[in-house]
Amino acid sequence: MNCTLIAVGKLREKPYRAMADEYLKRLTRYGRVREVELPDLPEPQDRSEALETQVRQREGEQILKQIRPGDYVVALTIPGRQWDSPGLAKHLEALAVGGAGEIVFVVGGSLGLSPAVIARANEELSMSPMTFPHQLARVMLLEQLYRAARITAGERYHK
C-alpha cells in the first residue's frame, strides 16, 4: 500500500512520535508511506469564529498545496464514515486495485479542517464519534493502516 499522511502539527511528545515511527517502520514491508507534517498555526487568543475560520483557511491552503490533482484524498473528520478493520482493509485494497492514484490521508489541526479541504476530499473517515487529540488520531490511523496492510496480505492480526 502506497499512501501519504498529511498532518497539521508535529508529533512533539516522545511517546506519540515513537509509536508513529514504529508503525511507519512496520508499514515499509507493505509499501511506501510518506508523512508530511505542516506547521500548526497558533490558535487565536480571541476565540471568535471569524479568527478560527481564518486559521482553518490558512492551514487548509498549506494542506491543499501538498495534494496533487490525481490523488485520492481521505479527510479525517468526526462525521466521516466509520469502518471496522477488515472493512477498511477491503476498501483500501479496492481503491488501490481500482487505480485511485496516491491515497492521501489528511489530519487537520486542533480547529479541524477547512471547508476547502473537505470539499477536495474524495471521502471522509472517522476513527470514532469521540474526539481524540490529533497526535493520538495520527497514531491510531497509522496503526489501522498497518492492520489493513496485514489483513490484505493475508497475515494474522489481533481482533
Structural notes for this entry:
The protein has a single domain (4-152), classed as Alpha/beta knot, CATH 3.40.1280.10. It has a five-stranded parallel β-sheet, sandwiched between helices. The protein is built from five helices and five strands, in the order βαβαβαβαβα. With 159 residues, the protein is an alpha/beta fold.
Topology:
Elements: E1 3-8, H1 14-27, E2 33-38, H2 49-66, E3 72-81, H3 85-97, E4 103-107, H4 115-120, E5 123-125, H5 134-152
Helix pairs in contact: 1-5, 3-5
Could you provide a short overview of the structure?
The protein is α/β, with parallel strands linked by helices. It has 5 helices and 5 strands. It has helices spanning 14-27, 49-66, 85-97, 115-120, 134-152, and strands spanning 3-8, 33-38, 72-81, 103-107, 123-125.
| Separate helix tally | 5
| Number of beta-strand segments | 5
The neighbouring-strand order within the major sheet is 2-1-4-3-5
Query: Any low-confidence stretches, pLDDT <50, length ≥5?
Result: none
Q: Give helix and strand order, one letter per element, not per position.
A: EHEHEHEHEH
**Outline:** globular
CATH architectural label: 3-Layer(aba) Sandwich
Rg from alpha-carbon coordinates: 15 Å
The residue fraction in helices comes out at 40-55%
| CATH fold-level assignment | Alpha/beta knot
Count of the domains: 1
Q: Helix- and strand-based class? A: alpha/beta
- Quote the distance from N terminus to C terminus: 21 Å
The largest sheet, given as strand count, sense and whether it forms a barrel, is: 5 strands, parallel
> β content, as a range?
15-25%
- CATH superfamily membership, which one? SPOUT methyltransferase, trefoil knot domain
CATH class placement: Alpha Beta
Mean pLDDT: 93
